[in-house]
């Protein structure tokens, strides 16, 4: 009798203790980058907890893996990656080692967001990482086009609804609200950028093709000889000649590169060197997906206005 009674008491107690916890259980979402976390947060609201492995000021190609990443991945219900080999240098071994079957590629808790986005620079010839090109499958910096932000958010909302069907209406409502706010913001950004369509720019890394495509900017060169390859004197010399010839007055660089070469190019050509944020959280002002564009477009239009 006694063990049975104890068992009954335990079941009763467990029910009381676990029930509220079970009702409040949030999907545990881990993302490779802050941009995916920001978009997941927009649609997931308070039904998910979300954390990015990389910080917004880090080069997403080369993130230093920390032991804490393994712990986060071990407890994740869903992992959202940028894909297109952006994270190939650091994320795949962590996924393998974390021992969490739910988030392995091909499993229900693994979401490669590139499938939802418009991808530029897809190679037409044989795929090769020869010469160190870090964009062998197409350009992975696709989140810097607000239309892609909308597409990614929609894809994440579908995945969250699949994993947590009871909250489907909530996710769809959050998505609709995000789309509405994004459309309003896009009108504002479009108006700010419209006078500068056709402007020629040079960027350090090829991080901005989707942004440039969306706003009609013409990226005519890069400080890197190829994506992922540091500047060389020969390439820099040719770039300076080209920028003079083409009258390029704005050079965009990402916060995680050395400013020495960009500054010397700026001095030789009269171009303004601008540090723009390629990711949410790259600086204190860019706290969400909207503020990221506010920040970049604010600085860029200022620079365009100051140069002809
Ligand atoms: Zn890149």
Give the structure's gist in a few sentences.
This protein has helices at residues 2-23, 34-44, 67-74, 91-97, 146-163, 168-193, 209-215, 233-246, 260-269, 289-306, and strands at 27-31, 48-52, 78-81, 110-112, 200-203, 218-222, 250-253, 272-275.
Shape: globular
CATH architecture of the largest domain: 3-Layer(aba) Sandwich
Proportion of strand residues: 5-15%
Bound molecules: zinc ion
Characterize the structure shown:
By secondary structure, the protein is α/β, with parallel strands linked by helices. It has 2 domains: 23-186, Rossmann fold, CATH 3.40.50; 194-306, Rossmann fold, CATH 3.40.50. The protein is 46% helix and 11% strand. It has 10 helices and 8 strands. It has helices spanning 2-23, 34-44, 67-74, 91-97, 146-163, 168-193, 209-215, 233-246, 260-269, 289-306; strands at residues 27-31, 48-52, 78-81, 110-112, 200-203, 218-222, 250-253, 272-275. The strands form 2 sheets. Strands 2-1-3-4 form a 4-stranded parallel beta sheet, covered by helices on one side. The longest helix has 26 residues, at 168-193. The chain is globular. The model is unreliable at 15-22 (pLDDT under 50).
């Amino acid at each position: 009798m006694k063990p049975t009674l104890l068992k009954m008491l335990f079941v009763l107690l467990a029910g009381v203790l676990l029930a509220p916890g079970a009702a409040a259980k949030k999907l545990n979402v881990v993302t490779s980058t802050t941009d995916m976390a920001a978009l997941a947060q927009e649609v997931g609201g308070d039904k998910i907890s979300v954390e990015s492995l990389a910080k917004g000021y880090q080069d997403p190609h080369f993130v230093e893996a920390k032991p804490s990443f393994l712990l986060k991945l071990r407890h994740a219900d869903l992992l959202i990656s940028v894909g297109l080999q952006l994270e190939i240098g650091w994320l795949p071994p962590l996924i393998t080692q974390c021992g969490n079957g739910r988030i392995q590629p091909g499993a229900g808790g693994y979401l490669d967001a590139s499938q939802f986005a418009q991808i530029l620079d897809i190679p037409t010839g044989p795929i090769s990482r020869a010469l160190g090109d870090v964009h062998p499958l197409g350009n992975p910096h696709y989140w810097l086009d607000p239309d892609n932000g909308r597409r990614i958010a929609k894809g994440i909302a579908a995945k969250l609804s699949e994993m947590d069907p009871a909250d489907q209406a909530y996710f769809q409502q959050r998505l609709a609200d995000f789309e509405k706010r994004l459309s309003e913001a896009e009108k504002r950004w479009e108006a700010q950028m419209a006078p500068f369509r056709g402007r020629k720019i040079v960027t350090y890394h090829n991080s901005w093709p989707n942004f440039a495509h969306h706003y009609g900017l013409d990226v005519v060169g890069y400080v890197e000889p190829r994506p992922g390859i540091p500047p060389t004197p020969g390439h820099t010399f040719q770039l300076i000649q080209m920028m003079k010839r083409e009258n390029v007055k704005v050079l965009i660089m990402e916060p995680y590169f050395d400013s020495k070469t960009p500054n010397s190019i700026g001095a030789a050509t009269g171009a303004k060197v601008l540090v723009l944020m390629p990711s949410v959280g790259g600086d204190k002002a860019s706290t969400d997906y909207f503020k990221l564009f506010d920040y970049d477009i604010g600085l860029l239009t200022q620079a365009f206005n100051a140069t002809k």
